[in-house]
Amino acid sequence: MSKGTLDQLTMPLGKYKGETVDAVAADHPSYLRWLLENVKLDRYPGLFENIREVLARRGELND
Q1: Which listed site, 19, 33, 47, 62, has its alpha carbon 20 to 30 Å from 9?
Q2: Rounded Cα gap, residues 54 and 16, in angstroms
Q3: How high is the pLDDT of residue 39?
Q4: Domain ranges in the chain?
Q5: Residue pair 18/10 in contact by the 8 Å Cβ criterion
Q6: Would you say 27 and 49 are in contact if contact means Cβ atoms under 8 Å apart?
Q7: How far is CA 54 from the centre of its chain?
């Protein structure tokens, strides 16, 4: 995962590898929700929290 502001963080894995978390959230929030529920993200420190923050900011988090 790249460093920088939240809007600049890039996906380190999956079909959207290299795209910003914010861009994926804009086009495919369901994919990010799926990642949160089904993938062990402990291998990518901070990614879980960043995805949750972006989805929450967009009102796309279903907790």
Answers
A1: 62
A2: 15
A3: 82
A4: 6-58
A5: yes
A6: no
A7: 7
**Per-residue confidence (pLDDT) for residue 48, from 0 to 100:** 85
Q: Could you list the mean pLDDT of each consecutive 10-residue stretch along the chain, which spans 63 residues? A: 61 90 92 88 81 90 72
Look at residue 26 and give its three-state secondary structure: helix
Calculate the alpha carbon distances from 8 to 18, 26, 63 in Å.
Answer: 10, 13, 25
Comparing CA positions, the residue from 22, 21, 25, 1 lying closest to residue 12 is 1
pLDDT of residue 24: 93
Q: pTM (2 decimals)?
A: 0.75
Kindly report each contact of residues 13-22 with a partner whose C-beta sits within 8 Å and lies 24 or more positions away, as own/partner.
13/39, 13/44, 21/47, 21/50, 21/51, 21/54, 22/54
